[in-house]
Amino acid sequence: MANYTVADIKALRERTGAGMMDVKKALDEANGDPDKALEVIRIKGLKGATKREGRSTAEGLVAARVDGSVGVMVEVNCETDFVAKAGPFIDFSNKVLDAAIASGATDVDALLAFEVDGRPMSEHVIEAGALLGEKVDIRRVARVEGAVVDAYLHRTSKDLPAQVGVLFAVEGEGAAAVEAAHDVALHIAAYTPTYLTRDEVPADLVESERRIAEETARAEGKPEAALTKIVEGRLTGFFKDAVLVDQPFSKDTKKSIAQVLGDAGVKATAFARFRVGA
């Protein structure tokens, strides 16, 4: 007869994020001792790490924090939404964020090499996967700096942690700068710009868009005399889609983001946007 209760199973699941059957088997093997069962789950999970290597990690969360003039954001992935919303996975993701802040890492390789409690972060990732029974990945890390930095996290489902995260930095000061930075961060979450300014758009991409616009206009039978104006108009439309400062502001589409920032007396310096799995 089992020497543990339903409450014991629930507590160990919440502690590890492991599945029901894995928890029950571990408690059976440990004769109901939760600490020994935790060790069983960890050991079996480590043994299964190689088998999980090829699995897809399309779920997870985005975590972000601003420390003074620096904003840091990470995306941590797992296999299922059940694990993504589990306390142990959320705790681990916060540990990853702490390491990203402490290390100053701007890429995943540097973050994985950073030592936490005397071991590289890569080992903590493997251990987290062992406890959770799923493959766990650190997919991305971003770091932005500015006089004012806003971090915005958005839940696409009330049952899950944040799936979308934004960091937005500006040069400026005062309440107007803080408000503008936050408003534009919300805008970025919804409107998914790719570049901050037109200068960041690769020249070959601009030329490709220009060529496509011209070929399309010719195929539509547009008059030769009007081609230049039509092409430039369509290229402007491309910039409005891809470039943050060119986009119409979500709260007032009569203004561009550049105008909103100008009214607040600030200048955009950097942004980052993550969406889990995208």
Detailed description of the structure:
The chain contains twelve helices and ten strands. The chain is of the alpha+beta class and 278 residues long. A hairpin with a 2-residue loop joins strand 3 (115-116) and strand 4 (119-120). Helix 10 crosses helix 11.
Topology overview:
Layout: H1 6-16, H2 20-29, H3 34-47, H4 49-52, E1 59-67, E2 70-78, H5 81-84, H6 87-103, H7 108-113, E3 115-116, E4 119-120, H8 121-132, E5 137-145, E6 148-154, E7 164-171, H9 175-191, H10 203-219, H11 227-242, E8 248-249, E9 252-256, H12 257-264, E10 267-275
Antiparallel strand pairs: 1-2, 2-5, 3-4, 6-7, 7-10, 8-9
Keywords:
278 residues; alpha+beta; Helicase, Ruva Protein, domain 3; Tetrahydropterin Synthase, Chain A; 3-stranded antiparallel β-sheet; 10 strands; elongated; EF-Ts_dimer_sf; Elongation factor Ts; translation elongation factor activity
Summarize the structure.
By secondary structure, the protein is α+β, with helices and mostly antiparallel strands. The chain has twelve helices and ten strands.
**Low confidence ranges:** none
Mean pLDDT: 90
Roughly what fraction of the amino acids lie in strands? 15-25%
Helix fraction bin: 40-55%
Largest beta sheet: what is the strand line-up? 1-2-5
**Continuous helix count:** 12
The rounded Rg comes to 24 Å
CATH H-level superfamily of the domain at 59-195 and 264-275:
Elongation factor Ts, dimerisation domain
- Helix-strand string: HHHHEEHHHEEHEEEHHHEEHE
Task: Give the CATH class of the domain at 59-195 and 264-275.
Answer: Alpha Beta
